[in-house]
Amino acid sequence: MAFIHCVANRELNCKEEFEKAFALDPKFDLSAAEAGHPIWGAAFRNVKNEVEARRSGKPIIAPAPKILSAGEKLLADAMTLYEAADYIKSVKNVSRRAKKKTLSLDDQLKARKFSAFSYCLSNRTTLCRQEFEKILQQKADFDLSAAEVGHPSWGPLFVQAKTRQRASSPAVTPTPAPVKK
C-alpha cells in the first residue's frame, strides 16, 4: 500500500504504511532497487531512520512545517478533491482558481496533469487528451512517470497526445556546414 500512496503523491499515507510495516516486522527492509526508487525511496528511508532513532532512544527532530505558496495550496486543495474521487470538482477548483493566481510553470503542469487524470477517470477522454496536449505545448519534453504512463485510463491518451505533438512539430533538418573554398 505504501507504494500506491507514494505513486499517488500521498506522502503522509505512504509513510504511515511504512510505519505499519516496521511495527509488524522490526527488521522490515526493501531491496536496494526498491529503497532507491525515485518515488517512494526517500519516504522509506526517512521512516526507517526515524524508527531506528526511536529504537536507539535518540531524539527525532521534526522538520519545520513547510509554508505553501498560493500555487501549492491550490494544488493541495485540488488533490484533496482528487483523492476523494471528486474529479470534476477538482478540475473546476483548479481551473477557476488558477485564473486568479500566478502559478509557476511546475505548478501549472501539475495542475494540468491532475486535471487530465480527472477527466480520464470521469470518462471525458477528449478533454483528457486536450489537457495533455496543452501540457506538451507548455513543455514539449514533458513526460509522465513510468507508473503514470502505464495507467490504463490516461496512459494511452498521453501517448496519443505525445504522438500528435511529434507529428505536428516541424521536422528539424540539419543546416549544412558552409563549404570551404
3D shape: globular
- Rg of Cα set: 21 Å
Structure annotation, total helices = 10
CATH topology of the largest domain, by name, is Serine Threonine Protein Phosphatase 5, Tetratricopeptide repeat
Tell me the count of domains: 2
The helical percent reads: 55-70%
Question: For the record, what CATH class of the largest domain applies?
Answer: Mainly Alpha
Span of the ends, CA to CA: 68 Å
Task: Give start-end ranges of low-pLDDT stretches.
Answer: none
The CATH architecture of the largest domain comes to Alpha Horseshoe
Largest sheet: none
Strand content: under 5%
H/E element sequence? HHHHHHHHHH
| Rounded mean pLDDT score | 82
SS-based class: mainly alpha
Total number of beta strands? 0
Task: Characterize the structure shown.
By secondary structure, the chain is mostly helical. It has two domains: 2-56, no CATH class; 70-168, Serine Threonine Protein Phosphatase 5, Tetratricopeptide repeat (Alpha Horseshoe). The protein contains ten helices and no strands. The chain has helices spanning 2-7, 11-24, 32-35, 41-56, 70-83, 87-98, 105-121, 125-138, 146-149, 155-168. The relative contact order is 0.08. The model has no long low-confidence stretch (mean pLDDT 82).
